Amino acid sequence: MSRMHAFEGIQNFRDFGDYPAAGKHVRKGLLYRSGHHARASDADVATMAAMKLSAIVDLRRPLERARHPSRRAETCGATLIANDDTTPDAESWSEFVKTSDLSADSFRDHSLRFYRRALFEPHYADVFARYFAALSEGEGPILVHCMGGKDRTGILAALTHTILGVHRDDIIEDFLLTNNEARFEREAPSFIAAFEELLGRAPAPAALRVAMGVEPAWLEAALGAATEACGSVEGYLETALGVDAKRRDAIEARLFV
Q1: Over the Cα atoms of the chain, what is R_g?
Q2: What pTM value is reported for the model?
Q3: 32-56, pLDDT tens digit by residue?
Q4: How is domain 14-255 classified at the CATH fold level?
């Protein structure tokens, strides 16, 4: 079964429901994830409007949203969940690449550092908490996205799967669906152009693949950080994001077949 949804200008759009979970099954068609929507075509905008999304969770920081404004239909009707705090990231991507040697190891190390701290950065913790509140209180599909729909979005998808009892193997498998050959071929030119515009040079192909993709160790680093700080991922969800038993029950009632 393909989880991917074909859009003209939106990358990495897929359903992250439809998994077995703790003896039950997560519904299909309620949980979606993607890259940003700034290049959405008119057809893409119409398709999203027809999906009748209840909420769109934009994990990007304000500067990212300003530079790459989303294209959505005025009649979309979805509640936007985002954070307007302008405090910069502890280690922004643009600042990192300016001092990087653009090697595969440098991209890998940067990602590991980000995944270890992301769950505890106020910007992301706030959006994560409001996402779970919306998931417990609303109806209809929810779409989560960041820029590439792989790192921040991947973490939030994994937290969702964890609370539902999806097996860790399936969580990792879903995370790795970002490493899609067609996506790499389609998006590589824009990645290269962005590097050349900023730095006047671009990474070698093997390093570019690391920058564009994801690796299991990164997600394990995020979930490990949650466990180290709160005893378990479930403990992090409750203590840091307010996902208590009542909220968990409501989420399960909404998402389980």
Answers
A1: 18
A2: 0.96
A3: 999 999 999 999 999 999 999 999 9
A4: Protein-Tyrosine Phosphatase; Chain A (3.90.190)
